[in-house]
């Protein structure tokens, strides 16, 4: 599932590709991927200009010229491609937004969606989300105060969007590996040094993910050399050697989530 670095990468790249551009046509291949009747969605979105593209947690928010919004959540397996018809992937397209001869294809939205919402509805969607962990006001002190109120395992806390916005299953494992903390550990078992290390690991791993374009396998456009540059340290690396201590990476399940860690250097 795309997480904060992947959605931040999409935001930056799409801002330069379609920011300020007019949506000349809309095609819906899967009605369940949108939240209003096809005719209404098409009529409301066609001929609108993309004013801004922003990110909140794992969402992308496209602000249209009439101040309505398209809210995108890719969920599991969702991705996008931008380009001409002859360059598009040989995949089923759920939604297609056209910008003249170029098109933005939404692919793999089996669980994901592109919803047309009012400003009030977008605000309501975001009400329960936790803080953005890469914002300047998310300081070590703010993180420490947030952790003081929690009692569950550190893995489930990191991926709880109501606690911290944007971290998912993959990057939570990366963060805990970098911080040398076992994902099974309870938050109230962490000492001050571990909490401090965890905060800095969140910053380091997510910033590195953003800088390297996230881990998405599929390029956003033909010739895209930004998307997908991040290489996981432990996530989905079961049996491979830890790059820090050469111990084989192990896999476990925590709250029904596949979890990868180094049994040696994550104590």
TrEMBL record:
> Has the keyword Zinc-finger been applied to this entry?
yes
Q: Name the coenzymes or cofactors required.
A: Zn(2+)
Give the coiled coil ranges. none
Family label: Belongs to the FPG family.
**EC number(s) on file:** 3.2.2.23, 4.2.99.18
- Lineage, top ranks: Bacteria, Bacillati, Bacillota, Bacilli, Bacillales
Per UniProt, residues of the FPG-type domain are: 233-267
PANTHER family linked to this entry = FORMAMIDOPYRIMIDINE-DNA GLYCOSYLASE
Q: Does the keyword tRNA processing apply?
A: no
The UniProt keyword set, sorted, is:
DNA damage, DNA repair, DNA-binding, Glycosidase, Hydrolase, Lyase, Metal-binding, Multifunctional enzyme, Zinc, Zinc-finger
Report the residue ranges that make up the Formamidopyrimidine-DNA glycosylase catalytic domain in this protein.
2-112
Name the catalysed reactions: 2'-deoxyribonucleotide-(2'-deoxyribose 5'-phosphate)-2'-deoxyribonucleotide-DNA = a 3'-end 2'-deoxyribonucleotide-(2,3-dehydro-2,3-deoxyribose 5'-phosphate)-DNA + a 5'-end 5'-phospho-2'-deoxyribonucleoside-DNA + H(+); Hydrolysis of DNA containing ring-opened 7-methylguanine residues, releasing 2,6-diamino-4-hydroxy-5-(N-methyl)formamidopyrimidine
Q: What is this protein's name?
A: Formamidopyrimidine-DNA glycosylase
Classification via InterPro entries: FPG_cat, FPG_Glyclase, FPG_N, H2TH_FPG, Ribosomal_uS13-like_H2TH, Znf_DNA_glyclase/AP_lyase, Znf_FPG/IleRS
Q: Which Pfam families match?
A: Fapy_DNA_glyco, H2TH, zf-FPG_IleRS
